[in-house]
Task: inverse folding
């Protein structure tokens, strides 16, 4: 199995584009960032600025035939910041690969900050160490960056997958969601189908594995992680090929205890976040079989049902609640130069 890349098909992108027309049970929707290259997960920094990981648009090479198309690598990945109304790219030169035109890039997927100097970005891979040897050594790692934009590679997530392979399938790594916490960082490997912990000394360990299960042969592809009001980690899965609807779960993870499913099923979860109202908000990348159709934002209610809050979304990439109580969402996350961030007042 190990079919984990979902930002690929131009046919999917175009199909979503034709269908998408956002409608919402919200007071207002306002674009606050624009011109982004494949924007994915977002985070607020300790100073109140909004950060978004941009997967970039690939580059001039090396090139590799992977997942049905020629994709070329480069250093177009970035992190952009919105601070006091000004949008700027503060981290540049990060690894990225993409098909011609740059749509659906693999590169920086998520960003998280905890205090000054503890800012991290995941760099995707979507393959194994052989893939990385061709596309570039920076893929399948985390990056730590400073307020001045300087950055260094930090954790070799793909190397950990190759050596340990927690789910027991063919080694495949695609670092995705990340949480920077005191003394550690927690991240999902969407290729390895697991939740990992990295201590401040750099040691990596497995907190949970999300394997294929009876009645569903596809991979889990965990793409999101958030800390709940109870202190547990909540992980959302996209699920892999053949991309069946209503097959994605949320998992509740307490280190050292068995993993539990939480709430109803969804389709193609790309991110989740706990709101100031104490409810869990779940973002679906798409709606229809084959990873097609518009995205939806749901709110999980106290009685276990889910309520659609935003529909008709075009390939949404991530959500985060801001200090102002508004929800911020990366939108058009498969477009090079056409991505944006929306502020949504619920």
Result:
């Amino acid at each position: 199995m190990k079919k984990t890349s979902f930002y690929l098909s131009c046919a999917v992108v175009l199909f979503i584009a034709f269908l998408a027309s956002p409608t919402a049970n919200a007071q207002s929707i306002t674009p606050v960032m624009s011109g982004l290259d494949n924007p994915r997960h977002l985070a607020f920094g300790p100073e109140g600025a909004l950060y978004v990981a941009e997967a970039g648009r690939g580059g001039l090479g090396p090139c590799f035939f992977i997942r049905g198309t020629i994709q070329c690598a480069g250093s177009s990945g970035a992190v952009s910041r919105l601070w006091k109304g000004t949008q700027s790219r503060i981290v540049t030169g990060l690894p990225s690969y993409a098909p011609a035109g740059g749509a659906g890039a693999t590169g920086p997927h998520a960003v998280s900050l905890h205090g000054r100097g503890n800012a991290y970005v995941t760099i995707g891979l979507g393959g194994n160490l052989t893939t990385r040897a061709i596309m570039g050594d920076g893929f399948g790692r985390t990056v730590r960056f400073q307020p001045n934009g300087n950055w260094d590679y930090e954790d070799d997530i793909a190397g950990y997958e190759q050596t340990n392979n927690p789910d027991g399938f063919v080694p495949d790594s695609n670092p995705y969601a990340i949480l920077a916490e005191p003394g550690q960082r927690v991240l999902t490997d969407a290729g390895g189908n697991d939740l990992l912990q990295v201590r401040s000394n750099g040691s990596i360990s497995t907190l949970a594995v999300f394997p294929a299960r009876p009645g569903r042969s596809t991979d889990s592809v965990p793409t999101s992680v958030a800390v709940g009001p109870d202190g547990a980690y909540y992980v959302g899965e996209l699920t892999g090929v053949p991309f069946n609807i209503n097959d994605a779960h949320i998992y509740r993870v307490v280190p050292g205890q068995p993993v539990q499913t939480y709430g109803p099923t969804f389709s193609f979860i790309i991110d989740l976040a706990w709101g100031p109202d104490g409810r869990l908000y779940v973002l679906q990348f798409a709606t229809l079989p084959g990873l097609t159709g518009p995205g939806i934002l749901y709110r999980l209610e106290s009685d276990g049902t889910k309520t659609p809050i935003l529909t008709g979304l075009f390939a949404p990439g991530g959500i985060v609640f801001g200090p102002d109580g508004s929800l911020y969402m990366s939108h058009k996350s498969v477009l090079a130069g056409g991505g944006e961030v929306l502020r949504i007042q619920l």
About this structure: Residues 43 and 51 are 5 Å apart (CA to CA). The chain is about 5% helix and 50% strand. The radius of gyration is 18 Å.
